[in-house]
Amino acid sequence: VKKIAVLTSGGDSQGMNAAVRAVVRSGLYYGLEVFGVQRGYQGLLNNDIRPMDLRSVGDIIQRGGTVLQSARCKEFVTPEGQQKGADILRENGIDGLVVIGGDGSYQGANKLSKLGIKTMCLPGTIDNDISFTDFTIGFDTAVSIVVDAVNKLRDTMSSHERSSIVEVMGRHCGDIALYAGLASGAETILVPEVPFTIDEVANRMRQNFEHGKRHSIVIVAEGVGRGDDIAKGISERVDVDARVTVLGHIQRGGCPTHNDRVLGSRLGDFAVRKLIEGESGKACGIIKNELVLTDIDTVVNTKKGFNKELYDLASRLSQ
Ligand code: ATP
């Protein structure tokens, strides 16, 4: 490859900027020409492509969001849209593309790869719902934001003997709830991967109050349902004032943690090096702190595993 482009697609996440910076600066370091595609696949179809130099990615490593902006693009889901995208890249002389995004963005990259564009995917989403990587870029920051919020809720909860129900993001994946729940000492963590009944949740809360706990924190992954419904179910069964906090998009904003910056930097550089080595149609990930390449096909067709060991640990420690 001689000319590569980078784009961010789907929901944004903290650390995407570190990854963009790494792709640009590693690409230039290895003698490639590097281009930035603005606003994901939509920008590609609009030919919104500009050359990137060393300075174009200055002062962004500490920022949330993505300087390349992101978008959802219906046209790109059609074969005609994908062909148009491949043609536009070729017309610009671009033979390699790094896509930073979630599952849908991977599917798009896979299509481009099958149309002869050398593509690499990086996991950019707070949800941690991508297989063949232990962590996605943005997940660590999102978890930190939830933990920080729960710290604050704890102070006020224990003064009033209340129960705090905290609804967190993650789509169908319970990882944000799991890691944030363990790290913040939540009594109960509700995730789509582990079945539960409201009676069990209520009984556990009742027992904890009987054992002298003064507050109760329940983390609810959005994949399980609404925090409001969980609170209603608890209030019907236990004599407790259950208050709901929905953290929402706050989880997707703010300054990325050092973990997300390091992960974005390592993966961005890895993607460029692998493109230079001639790889294509691959997803970059990190497993046991080693950078790994997996076929995009395999990644999009494999559901991310759930860390039941960690879930059981959180459960044992929260009695
Ligand atoms: P997140 O999980 O963080 O929201 P995502 O990448 O999964 O990120 P999507 O909106 O699903 O977000 O996908 C981003 C874009 O990728 C879509 O707007 C669309 O242009 C493209 N895309 C999604 N699915 C496909 C597909 N099956 N084929 C081609 N392109 C697709």
Automatic annotation (TrEMBL):
<keyword id="KW-0418">Kinase</keyword>
<feature type="domain" description="Phosphofructokinase">
    <location>
        <begin position="3"/>
        <end position="273"/>
    </location>
</feature>
<feature type="binding site">
    <location>
        <position position="243"/>
    </location>
    <ligand>
        <name>substrate</name>
    </ligand>
</feature>
<dbReference type="GO" id="GO:0005524">
    <property type="term" value="F:ATP binding"/>
</dbReference>
<dbReference type="GO" id="GO:0005945">
    <property type="term" value="C:6-phosphofructokinase complex"/>
</dbReference>
<dbReference type="GO" id="GO:0030388">
    <property type="term" value="P:fructose 1,6-bisphosphate metabolic process"/>
</dbReference>
<dbReference type="GO" id="GO:0046872">
    <property type="term" value="F:metal ion binding"/>
</dbReference>
<dbReference type="GO" id="GO:0061621">
    <property type="term" value="P:canonical glycolysis"/>
</dbReference>
<feature type="binding site">
    <location>
        <begin position="102"/>
        <end position="105"/>
    </location>
    <ligand>
        <name>ATP</name>
    </ligand>
</feature>
<dbReference type="InterPro" id="IPR012003">
    <property type="entry name" value="ATP_PFK_prok-type"/>
</dbReference>
<dbReference type="InterPro" id="IPR012828">
    <property type="entry name" value="PFKA_ATP_prok"/>
</dbReference>
<feature type="binding site">
    <location>
        <position position="11"/>
    </location>
    <ligand>
        <name>ATP</name>
    </ligand>
</feature>
<comment type="pathway">
    <text>Carbohydrate degradation; glycolysis; D-glyceraldehyde 3-phosphate and glycerone phosphate from D-glucose: step 3/4.</text>
</comment>
<feature type="binding site" description="in other chain">
    <location>
        <begin position="169"/>
        <end position="171"/>
    </location>
    <ligand>
        <name>substrate</name>
    </ligand>
</feature>
<feature type="binding site" description="in other chain">
    <location>
        <position position="222"/>
    </location>
    <ligand>
        <name>substrate</name>
    </ligand>
</feature>
<feature type="binding site" description="in other chain">
    <location>
        <begin position="125"/>
        <end position="127"/>
    </location>
    <ligand>
        <name>substrate</name>
    </ligand>
</feature>
<comment type="similarity">
    <text>Belongs to the phosphofructokinase type A (PFKA) family. ATP-dependent PFK group I subfamily. Prokaryotic clade 'B1' sub-subfamily.</text>
</comment>
<dbReference type="InterPro" id="IPR015912">
    <property type="entry name" value="Phosphofructokinase_CS"/>
</dbReference>
<dbReference type="InterPro" id="IPR022953">
    <property type="entry name" value="ATP_PFK"/>
</dbReference>
<keyword id="KW-0547">Nucleotide-binding</keyword>
<dbReference type="GO" id="GO:0003872">
    <property type="term" value="F:6-phosphofructokinase activity"/>
</dbReference>
<protein>
    <recommendedName>
        <fullName>ATP-dependent 6-phosphofructokinase</fullName>
        <ecNumber>2.7.1.11</ecNumber>
    </recommendedName>
</protein>
<dbReference type="InterPro" id="IPR000023">
    <property type="entry name" value="Phosphofructokinase_dom"/>
</dbReference>
<feature type="active site" description="Proton acceptor">
    <location>
        <position position="127"/>
    </location>
</feature>
<feature type="binding site" description="in other chain">
    <location>
        <position position="154"/>
    </location>
    <ligand>
        <name>ADP</name>
    </ligand>
</feature>
<keyword id="KW-0963">Cytoplasm</keyword>
<feature type="binding site" description="in other chain">
    <location>
        <begin position="249"/>
        <end position="252"/>
    </location>
    <ligand>
        <name>substrate</name>
    </ligand>
</feature>
<keyword id="KW-0324">Glycolysis</keyword>
<comment type="subunit">
    <text>Homotetramer.</text>
</comment>
<dbReference type="GO" id="GO:0042802">
    <property type="term" value="F:identical protein binding"/>
</dbReference>
<feature type="binding site">
    <location>
        <begin position="21"/>
        <end position="25"/>
    </location>
    <ligand>
        <name>ADP</name>
    </ligand>
</feature>
<dbReference type="GO" id="GO:0006002">
    <property type="term" value="P:fructose 6-phosphate metabolic process"/>
</dbReference>
<dbReference type="Pfam" id="PF00365">
    <property type="entry name" value="PFK"/>
</dbReference>
<keyword id="KW-0067">ATP-binding</keyword>
<feature type="binding site" description="in other chain">
    <location>
        <begin position="213"/>
        <end position="215"/>
    </location>
    <ligand>
        <name>ADP</name>
    </ligand>
</feature>
<keyword id="KW-0808">Transferase</keyword>
<keyword id="KW-0021">Allosteric enzyme</keyword>
<comment type="function">
    <text>Catalyzes the phosphorylation of D-fructose 6-phosphate to fructose 1,6-bisphosphate by ATP, the first committing step of glycolysis.</text>
</comment>
<dbReference type="GO" id="GO:0048029">
    <property type="term" value="F:monosaccharide binding"/>
</dbReference>
<feature type="binding site">
    <location>
        <begin position="72"/>
        <end position="73"/>
    </location>
    <ligand>
        <name>ATP</name>
    </ligand>
</feature>
<feature type="binding site" description="in other chain">
    <location>
        <begin position="185"/>
        <end position="187"/>
    </location>
    <ligand>
        <name>ADP</name>
    </ligand>
</feature>
<keyword id="KW-0460">Magnesium</keyword>
